[in-house]
Structures are given as C-alpha cells and as structure tokens.
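User: tokens in, sequence out, please.
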C-alpha cells in the first residue's frame, strides 16, 4: 500500500484493552474518528452511560478522558458492519482466552473470537484496509488472518478491497493503563508493508517519541508480546519462591529484594512478593507459550516455562495452608475477613485473582468469609466463586464498607494492596477481634513495627520467623 492517511478507525472489542487504548488515541488524535464496537450490548450501554462511574472498566484517569472525547471523536456502538465499512484501519482487540475444549485444551489460546471478527472484516470492509492485531495471539496468527482476508477479497469496482495485516501488541498493565498508554516504554509494530507500518506509526507519533516506536517482522512482534509477559511472570515466581525460603531461614524478602535489585543488571522493579500473580494474561500467555514450544518440538523449553505457573499455583496454595496452620489446623465456623478481591489494586478486574482459589479453599474448610473490595461488585465475586464450584453464599458475605467488618473476626487476610487498607487503624481493629486472632499480610503493605506494638499475631509473606 502507498502512503495512507488514517481518518477513521474501528476497534473491535470494547474491553480492558480496546476501551482505554482507543480513548488515549482519540485524545491525542482529534482529527481521527474512532468507533469501538462490541457484540456485548450491555457493555456498550455502560460505555455510553451518562454516569461516568458506570463505565465498565475502572482505571485511574479513564473517565476524565472519556468525558473529553466521547461523542466528539470516540464512539461506542454495537453496529459492527457499519463501523468496519467506514474504517481505514481496524484494530482487533477481542479476548483470546485459553481453549477449554479440543486440541490443546487447557493450554493453547482460543483464537475463535479473532477468527470471527476477521471474517466480519472480510465481509464488510471497503477499499484499502489495514488490520491491526492488538489482541495477544499465538505466533503466526497473522498468517491465518491474512489467509481469511485474502480469500474473501472482492474485485468488483464498487466494493474492491485490499488488506494488509500488522501486529501491534499492547503492553499496558491494568491499574496504570492510562499512564502506560500515554507514556509507553515502547510501541512495537510488526509487519511487512511499509505504507501500512508508517500509517500506524504516524498515529503514535502524535504523542510518542520516534525512537520509542520500533518495527520488526510480524512473527517477532507477535512472539515478543508473549515473551514480555513470560519474563514478567517469571520474575514474580522467582521472588515468590524465595519468599518461602526467607520465611524458613529468618531472612526478609524486602531486604533481599533491595540487595539484588540494586544490581543494575537485575533492576528493582517487579520484585514484590505476594499471593501469586493473577490477571487475565500471565497464566494464559505462559500456557500458550508452553503449548507453542511443544508444538514446535521443544519440550525442554516448554517444561522450563511451565515451572513459572507451578510456582504460582503453589504460592496461592501455601498461603491458604499457612492460614489454616496458624489457626490451629481448623477454620470451621471461624470468621475470616478478606481484604481485596481484585487481582491487583486500582482495577475492578477479578480474572485469575489469587483471591478466588484462596477463598474457595478456605470456604471448603468451613470458614465464614467477610469479603471486602472497594471496586469489585458482589455479583462479580459470586460469578468467580460459582466458577470454582462454590454455588451458594451461605458461608460468605460481601461488603463494600469496612465499618464493623472486623468485629469478632478470628483472622484478617490482606490479598490486594488497595490504598485504603494502608490507612486502617490497626490499634482499634485489634480491640474488636476475637482472641487469639491473626493478621496475614500477603502484600506486605503493613509496617510490622506498628502491629507488633498492638500485640497482633502477625504473618507477612517473605518475613522470617526471628524478626
Ligand atoms: P476483554 O474480554 O475485556 O474484552 C474483549 C471484548 O471483545 C469483549 O467485550 C467481547 O465481547 C468482545 N468481542 C469478542 N468477539 C467479538 C466480535 N467478534 N465482535 C465484537 N466484539 C467482540 O479482553 P481484554 O482484557 O480487553 O483483552 C483483549 C486482548 O488484549 C486479549 O488478547 C488480551 O490477551 C490482550 N491484552 C490484555 C491486556 C489487559 O490488561 N487486559 C493487556 C494487554 C493485552
Ligand atoms: C501484565 C503486564 O504487566 C502488561 O505489560 C501486559 O500488557 C498485561 O499483563 C497483559 O498482557 O495483559 P497486568 O496483568 O494488568 O499487566 O498487571 P501487572 O501489574 O503485570 O500484575 C500482574 C499480577 O502480578 C498481579 O496479580 C500483581 O499483583 C502481580 N505482581 C506484580 C506481583 O505479585 N508482584 C510484582 O512485583 C508485580
């Protein structure tokens, strides 16, 4: 394709990536009209809601941008065909979860949503159209997208179409999405058509410095996304494995983290021990990577990355076991307060949250859980627990308020590092607990010196016994 000036964008998928990403592009490129489409009508209604507290994705800074650009150059719609027909560039931002059935079930990524919307693009696109993979997909997916588009290209003068396919993976993290999109470490564009690459690059150059936009071939770009997530997840499993060693040796993971992180080759970021990584992507992308390695005849590489997932599962399990052990091996009918259900702070996303399995295991032991989260809705907690076989709410209640939640509790378990939990007055909390009671801090947000003064039984991930 020759030089292309993009005037109209369609983004398929109004989720955690599609919504924030397009909002930031719309904000930086007022001359481009962007329409985000989704099959999920309810989601689109919420994105169009007058009450900005109802938009379906909670991200600091997002509602302010939506207020500025919505219905100016950013639109939300369920009319997929129309948005495709009017677009010069189409972003595919749909979900790519782990397959649950068939070949590769439990490991390979399910690209059926990517294929479905590619077929819609093939059917409704008009003229020269650039298709951009934003979703995280297995390496070589662009080949499948290209085959579908080419086999459906139309030749008659009225509807003549031509397509080019680019890979432009997204590296935003939830909770910091707006800042990550506005100040990205890098923008990665994979492709082989220079005109299309330049068209996409020119969009980003409206706010990203040129030296931070890198271009590669399609397969390097697709693979780099999986590998970035695999390396990040590996760091968390590494530090979590060492947190267990700290606990039994009297070392302190915070001190070890500082000592190793000052080595500039290691670096200090992404070394927080915790209840294990959650979120919709790390596990799914690692599983996909292990599947791909096996598929391409590299079982040793596959096993290496599998271990990152095993340690993550083990970390969640050992936290649950620690709670049981400290409470004399029995939590039946004991009141345990769960602080935080989202997979990290500053997001309402609960996908793969460590809280799910930890709560499930405690409920199966007979505990009474009082679950609190400032942004997650009760229906979402219900959905997640039902998915893991907890089909009634006899033993757990959800509350949006902290007042009264600690009365007569046997234990408190901090699972998400929400800011409000850092402000809790532990001295007054201690007065209302049942004795003996325990405070478990899996996120290391509580200063041990403070709680020690109040004679709490206190456990913190990665903190050795003799401290
Ligand atoms: P999501 O589930 O929040 O959103 C995907 C949306 O796509 C859903 O609303 C769904 O209804 C819609 N959809 C599916 N098929 C469709 C179709 N044919 N037509 C119209 N709409 C359709 O998912 P997400 O978290 O936004 O992730 C999307 C992709 O981005 C995934 O591949 C993920 O791995 C990747 N990713 C996610 C993040 C993140 O932080 N969530 C970050 C980087 C990359
Ligand atoms: C992650 C990556 O950071 C993004 O770059 C990527 O785009 C995204 O996945 C994706 O592909 O979906 P996200 O999962 O939103 O982003 O959030 P992270 O900040 O990476 O946290 C993931 C999990 O790791 C959380 O449960 C978090 O609590 C945990 N974590 C993170 C730790 O336990 N310790 C740390 O030091 C950092």
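Assistant: Sequence out:
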């Amino acid at each position: 394709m020759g030089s292309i000036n993009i005037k109209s964008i369609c983004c398929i998928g109004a989720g955690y990536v599609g919504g924030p990403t397009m909002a930031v592009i719309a904000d930086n490129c007022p001359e481009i009209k962007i329409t985000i489409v989704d099959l999920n009508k309810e989601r689109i209604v919420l994105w169009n809601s007058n009450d900005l507290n109802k938009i379906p994705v909670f991200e600091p800074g997002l509602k302010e941008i939506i207020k500025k650009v919505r219905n100016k150059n950013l639109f939300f719609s369920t009319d997929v065909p129309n948005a495709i027909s009017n677009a010069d560039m189409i972003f595919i931002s749909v979900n790519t979860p782990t397959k649950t059935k068939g070949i590769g079930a439990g490991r390979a990524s399910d690209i059926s949503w990517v294929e479905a919307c590619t077929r819609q693009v093939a059917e409704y696109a008009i003229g020269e159209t650039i298709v951009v993979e934003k979703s995280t997909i297995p390496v070589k997916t662009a080949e499948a997208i290209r085959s579908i588009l080419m086999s459906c290209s139309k030749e008659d003068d009225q509807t003549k179409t031509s397509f080019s396919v680019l890979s432009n993976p997204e590296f935003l993290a939830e909770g910091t999405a707006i800042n990550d999109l506005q100040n990205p470490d890098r923008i990665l564009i994979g492709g082989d058509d220079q005109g299309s690459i330049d068209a996409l690059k020119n969009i980003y150059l409206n706010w990203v410095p040129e030296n931070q936009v890198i271009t590669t071939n399609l397969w390097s770009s697709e693979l780099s996304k999986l590998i970035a997530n695999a390396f990040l997840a590996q760091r968390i499993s590494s530090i979590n494995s060492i947190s267990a060693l700290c606990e039994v040796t009297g070392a302190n993971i915070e001190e070890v983290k500082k000592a190793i992180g000052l080595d500039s080759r290691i670096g200090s970021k992404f070394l927080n021990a915790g209840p294990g990584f959650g979120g919709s992507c790390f596990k799914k992308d690692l599983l996909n990577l292990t599947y791909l390695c096996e598929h391409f005849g590299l079982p040793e590489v596959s096993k290496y990355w599998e271990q990152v997932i095993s340690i993550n599962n083990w970390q969640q399990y050992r936290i649950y076991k620690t709670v049981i052990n400290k409470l004399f091996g029995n939590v039946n009918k004991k009141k345990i307060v769960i602080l935080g259900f989202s997979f990290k702070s500053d997001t309402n996303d609960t996908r793969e949250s460590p809280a799910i399995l930890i709560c499930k295991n405690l409920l199966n032991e007979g505990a009474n859980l009082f679950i609190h989260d400032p942004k997650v809705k009760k229906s979402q907690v219900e959905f997640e627990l039902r998915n893991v076989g907890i089909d009634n709410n006899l033993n757990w209640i959800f509350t949006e308020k902290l007042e009264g939640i600690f009365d007569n509790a046997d234990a408190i378990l901090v699972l998400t590092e929400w800011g409000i939990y850092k402000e809790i007055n532990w001295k007054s909390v201690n007065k209302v607990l049942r004795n003996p009671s325990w405070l478990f801090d899996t996120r290391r947000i509580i200063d041990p010196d403070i709680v020690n003064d109040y004679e709490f039984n206190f456990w913190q991930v990665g903190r050795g016994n003799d401290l």
